[in-house]
Amino acid sequence: MTRSRIAGIGMYVPEQVVTNQDLTKYMETSDAWIQERTGIKERRYAHRTEETTTTMGVEAAKIAIERAGITPQDIDFIVFATLSPDYYFPGCGVLVQRAMKMKEIGALDVRNQCSGFVYALSVADQFIRGGMYKNVLVIGSEKHSFGLDFSTRGRNVSVIFGDGAGAVVLQPTTSDNQGILSTHLHSDGESAEILAMYNPGTHANHWMEQSLAAFDEAEIGQMFMSHEMIDKAQNFPFMDGPSVFKKAVVKFPEVIMEALDANGCTPADLKLLIPHQANLRIAQFVQQKLGLSEDQVYNNIQKYGNTTAASVPLALCEAWQNGKIQEGDLVCLAAFGSGFTWASALLKW
Ligand code: UT7
User: Fold this and answer.
1) pLDDT-based confidence at 213, cuts 50/70/90?
2) For 200-211, what is the mean pLDDT?
3) Three-class SS string for 269-308?
4) Most buried residue, 15, 108, 141, 293, by most Cβ within 10 Å?
5) DSSP of 143-192, one letter per residue?
6) 200 lines ligand 1 (CB under 6 A)
7) What residues have CB less than 8 Å from 74, skipping those under 6 apart?
8) Which domains, from first to last, does the chain contain?
């Protein structure tokens, strides 16, 4: 049976370290509040003008491709997960294709926020299992620092997020003791608006009470992005943190158990759980709920904050680089976030 395996993995974080103390220059917050509620001590911010979501993704991809022992010209397909793309459109996948001088291969962008990487991995896995491609590049990358409200108004969101990228190359394997065993994807759109960035968007919710005829040309032109939206900070992410937290601590254990059950495994069989780095308190809750030891869960949110689609590959890569994963080890990736969407992948390294 053909499965896909991670043949190469890479990560990139920008140089600039931003501590909790640094953020107190812009908003009313404190190192104590941030550490106590989230576990975050610092995060990285990309260079304002020279780095983008794509350039960081490319840096991570270069390492993953080299470690897979291939060249960018060998890549058959790109799947790029992000919520902070360089452009509203086109997506970052094509920019990677251009930057890395790849062949005229397919490039797909996945917009599933925090679970974006696990979704992207699942898509790539299907292409390999089905025999269509031999080398699929999967990237998760975010440049959050460019789109956050750094005033006190936005502090519940802005202190959490950081920039960075991770990438893997998937290749086929017929080994019984290696590869992605299964992936599990879920969504529930009921609470779509409680963790969302509404604008720019085509919802036009705030215009809907009136018919289009009531607007003049200038107003119609401003439906997508208006001065009012900017004045009211409606172009920044919105999050009802406590509601997200409550749902996350239910769905994380559920989707991890789903992956383990599907493969006849138990939490005790896990060498390492790599949870999406949303909040250290969530990861600790999940660890306790599943009866895992501290050694069985990898966290690096303390250094990088929540990097959304980049967080799972960043943590996976760092764990592997630190010798925490060896060949044949059972590893579970799990994520939950905006949508809501949640997902898991169980793999043998
Ligand atoms: O990866 C995407 C998925 N996202 C998540 O999983 C996030 C899940 N949620 C969380 O991680 C937490 O809800 C947060 C860390 C976002 C917030 O922690 P919390 O313990 O739920 O705090 P809260 O939102 O209930 O706010 C408590 C208080 C409020 O003040 P009052 O109303 O009690 O006076 C906030 O205004 O803390 C205040 N606050 C802050 N204070 C200092 C909110 N943000 C900050 C801040 N610094 N940065």
Assistant:
1) low
2) 66
3) HCCEEEECCCCHHHHHHHHHHCCCCHHHECCCHHHHCECH
4) 141
5) -GGGS---SGGGHHHHTTB--EEEEEEEEEE--TTSEEEEEEEEE-GGGG
6) no
7) 65, 135
8) 3-173 (3.40.47.10), 179-192+238-348 (3.40.47.10), 200-231 (no CATH)
Whose structure tokens read 């917050």? 29
Q: Is 337 exposed, middle or buried (0-12, 13-18, 19+ CB in 10 A)?
A: buried
pTM listed for this prediction: 0.95
Distance from the alpha carbon of residue 270 to the mean position of ligand 1, in angstroms: 31
Q: Where are the beta strands (DSSP E) in 14-104?
A: 16-19, 42-45, 77-81
DSSP state of 134: S
Q: Is the pLDDT of residue 227 over 60?
A: yes
User: Which numbered atom of ligand 1 lies nearest the CA of 157?
Assistant: 16
Mean pLDDT of 254-278: 98
* Residue 31 Cβ contacting ligand 1 at under 6 Å: no
> What is the rounded average pLDDT of the residues 245-250?
97
32 lines ligand 1 (CB under 6 A): no
pLDDT confidence of 234, banded at 50, 70, 90? confident
Count Cα neighbours of 230 within 13 Å in the Cβ-side half-sphere: 5
What separation in Å is there between the alpha carbon of 159 and the centre of ligand 1? 10
pLDDT in tens, 161-181: 999 999 999 999 999 889 999
Cα(242) to centroid(ligand 1), Å: 7
How much is the average pLDDT of 16-23? 98
Kindly state the tokens that stand for 213: 């005829």
